[in-house]
Amino acid sequence: MKVRLIIFAFLLSSIKLFSQNAVPNGYQNIKLGMDLEETKEELVKNPDFGYHGDRDVSLLPGGNKQVLIETDAEFSTSTNFLTRCWFQFYENKLYIITINLNKEKIDYYSMFTTLTDKYGLPTKLDPKKAIWENDEYTMILEKPVSIKYIEKATYNQLLTSANVEKSGFEITKQMFMDEF
What we know:
By secondary structure, the chain is of the alpha+beta class. It contains five helices and ten strands. Strands 3-4-5-6-10-9-8-7 form an eight-stranded antiparallel β-sheet. Strands 1-2 form a two-stranded antiparallel ribbon.
């Protein structure tokens, strides 16, 4: 009886372990948690993103803790399956990757089917998006056709702190709107 119980527990933990690994932590060689310089190097290596160097990098409101790389892959010399892509950093670590796909070449249903075949059914599904997640990462397929990879710990930390104080942009925006 104990042997069966141990085998059953092992199988359950194996299934849980497998499902925890089912959510990817990035796209191709660009992985969540990479530092800014590593990410730039990988973007340069991959012409699909249309990365042009430091001119695609900007600081977000809130000081130098948040950095954004925006690429325009639509006019790259590659396959043009991608359009605009964003790579968000907090304290020099990549925590969100947003990849917009060319909706004239790839449709939502095809991506949904591919991701479901590869990673199983989404953990959440609604008419606008499908979400796959585990304890560390979230992958979201949104309509019309974009994919987000999110490192949950940093995202949740920033979400919590955003509820505490407004950013410089939010304060400036409110001051501007108050003028009307």
